[in-house]
Amino acid sequence: MTEKGSNPRTHPAFDFIKESQNRGIFWFELGILFYMQHQMKLSSVPYNKIASRAKLIESRLYDEKRQQIALGDEIEFSENENPTNKVTTRVRGLLRYGSFKDLFADHAPALFGEESREFLLNQIKQFYSDEEEQKYGVLGIRLERID
Question: Can you give the pTM of this predicted structure?
Answer without folding.
Answer: 0.77
